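[Meeting: bench + compute handoff]

Bench side (C.D.) handed over the final construct sequence. Compute side (W.E.) agreed to return the predicted structure before the next meeting so the bench team could plan truncations. Sequence as handed over:
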Amino acid sequence: MIWWLLACGGSGPENRLRSEEHQQPVEIQTAAGHYRLTWQSWPSPIPMGELFVVETTLLDKEGKALENGTVRVDARMPAHGHGMATRPLPALPTCSAPQQDPALLAAIEAGTLPEGCSYPGGKYKMEGMKFHMPGEWTIRFDVTGPAGVDHAELRYAL
């Protein structure tokens, strides 16, 4: 079953997800409508105080997987004014020529993907995420792709 959430900055019930209701995958649309994201976490539901991974499939408006974009995921607790205690890192893409990991990671963090690199099937992973306390978290997906830069947010109550 896919849960559809509108990804906007509001706080309405349509973009909130409670950990006990979390069924995967979850599909959201970016704020400007350029992309759709299907995401899931490992483990699920997201545990408090433990590392987890977020895998996102990036799709265009028509539902075609985009392999040559970038997706960054971060989370904050708006009520507390802080983010996670960890610094999540994106999994590296598949590249046709050898790439230097530090330079490749810096390019991805800047929202660019070097020529000859891709994420097969449009699957992007963010590793090292951790919700260290209970409460409401805002998960933000920053996306760069053929239609430009966009983002999606949803609220996740732990």
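W.E. noted at the follow-up: The chain has one domain: 3-157. C.D. will use this when planning the next construct.
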